[in-house]
Amino acid sequence: MTELLPHPLTGQPFASPVPAGTGWPDDPAASGTPVAHDADDVRRLADEVDLAELDARVSVCSACDRLVQWREDVARDKRASFADQPYWGRPIAGWGAERPGVLIVGLAPAANGGNRTGRIFTGDRSGDWLFASLHRVGLASQPTSEHAGDGLRLIDTRMVATVRCAPPQNRPTTQERNTCSPWIEREISLVAPSVRVVVALGGYGWDAALRSFKAAGFDVPRPKPKFGHGAEALIGDRVTLLGCFHPSQQNTFTGKLTEEMTDAVFRRAATLV
Ligand code: SF4
Fold it and tell me: Using CA positions, which residue lies closest to atom 6 of ligand 1?
């Protein structure tokens, strides 16, 4: 029998993974949202949809067999410290302002973070680091992000993952990245009219941002600009790409990325918009 557990904020019981349209806070999908089952479906379903429907379709996508298996296994097995919680166990849609000035591009959701809470960078240490910085520079309404439905708002900012499902060892394959790419490319083409700054988290986010803006019809620099913390490049004639080391524990525990360094990048982003 499917185990139902209460959502930590609302108390409503959910199965893990969470069926679409059953009341999870900010679930963009409904029970009838079309599901992509392979790469061709992703391309077709990402074509010519608005942002709300794009989010919905992303959140039920099942195109990558390995990632579907992994995200759902993690959702059912659960980390011991979260054994009393339901896990989202679905892809993570972009989240934040619909017409953002700042777009943050990351790698993929964490198995026990976004894959548990259903919101990007929510419920893991990387997110704690990131949202605290965004709050300090005025781009987030509160410094913590533990659960969807907690009232947190991003200010003039949107976050997207390049690959929308949690991958084993945080390493999607090139084929999985390519299968997922129409989702981010469509999202970028929808938000591009307002975006002035893209903050790329890590080299993966940097490359994905350049690739996706190019696919959306923007001129990107040639040769490809080198990623680094604080690196800047111009996309088209008005979008500044900023590099930021990824706020993984590998970087924050070792001091490779400090709070001051993170704030400096996001302060620069806030200044540019
Ligand atoms: S990684 Fe992307 S394309 Fe693959 S199943 Fe997840 S959302 Fe779909």
Answer: 165
